[in-house]
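Revision sheet: structure tokens.
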Amino acid sequence: MEVHVHMRHSDRMADVVRPPLRDRLRLVESLLRAVEDSMSPLQRLVSEVHKEIGLALHEEVESGREEELSALRREVDQLREGMASRGAIERAKGILMQRQGLTESQSFDLLSEISQRYRRKLRDVAADIAGGSLTLRITGDPQAGELPERAVPDGRSRSRSNGQAKSEPA
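Predicted:
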């Protein structure tokens, strides 16, 4: 059998002697001030740490974005250059196919050969052919499926080293 004893609130209060409310409130106020005084430097420190973490994260993100942005800019420049080069190469191939009776593959191979022989970029050789500043004299039989035996600049072409026009020997 269980017995429960219920005490009324007023009965419990009678057993404990408490200082007056005003004194208790002053004590609580002084304790809060002490806690605030000890927490204030800690809060400033925590705030500084959060601020530094935020700045470091921001710098990290910005740094990554700058690198990514720089890489994307380089890629866009390369793609633009590639598109411009492709147009000149296609025009030059068409000119060689029409004037020299070469196939598309032979025209490209010939552009590559000239580019390597004169140590010039393929797009520059193609631009010179498309612009008419470089014409070729070809020996060999392209109709027989052979690569031309000899393709030399005919007339005036630009020198690779200084961009000045010079006459190439035949």
